[in-house]
Design a protein that fits this description.
With 147 residues, the chain is mainly alpha-helical. The protein has helices at residues 4-22, 26-34, 44-56, 58-65, 78-93, 99-113, 118-133, 135-140. This is Transcription antitermination protein NusB.
């Protein structure tokens, strides 16, 4: 069973995909998403934070993601871009969520909504971003340095 926060990420990813593809107003997309089946199972506060936070910070999120890519951010599929924006936003603003969880959730979103191997790309990009955005946490992941 999916938890409420995961459901919020799924719905935010779908909303952001719509925003990236159509350019519709976030409030219009929000109203549509809230009417979908299963919205009642989502963490509404997390959904709101992701949707409106990502839209508000889209330019700076793209700027953070860009150096970790092998192509311009505008050449990403809209699904990969939405997933990476959600992950980057969570890495920046939701430090209560361990970075490994953020990466894992991004991978799961890419598996659910993206192309066949898109999750591998998302995993690599979010791993690089985690090292930049949360260097102390990412450094601890490997344990003490070996001598």
């Amino acid at each position: 069973m999916r938890n409420a926060r995961r459901r919020a990420r799924e719905l935010a990813t779908q909303a952001l995909y719509q925003w990236l593809v159509s350019g519709a107003a976030p409030s219009e997309i929000d109203a549509h998403i809230r009417g979908t089946q299963g919205f009642d199972k989502a963490d509404r506060a997390h959904f709101d934070a992701l949707l409106y936070g990502v839209v508000r910070e889209a330019e700076s999120l793209d700027a953070a993601i860009g150096p970790c890519l092998d192509r311009p951010v505008t050449e990403l599929s809209p699904v990969e871009r939405a997933v990476l924006m959600v992950g980057t936003y969570e890495l920046r603003h939701h430090v209560d969520i361990p970075y490994r969880v953020v990466i894992n959730e991004g991978v799961e979103l890419a598996k659910t909504f993206g192309g066949t191997d898109g999750y591998k790309y998302v995993n690599g990009v979010l791993d690089k971003l985690a090292a930049k955005i949360r260097p102390d946490e990412a450094q601890r992941r490997g344990g003490p340095a070996k001598t």
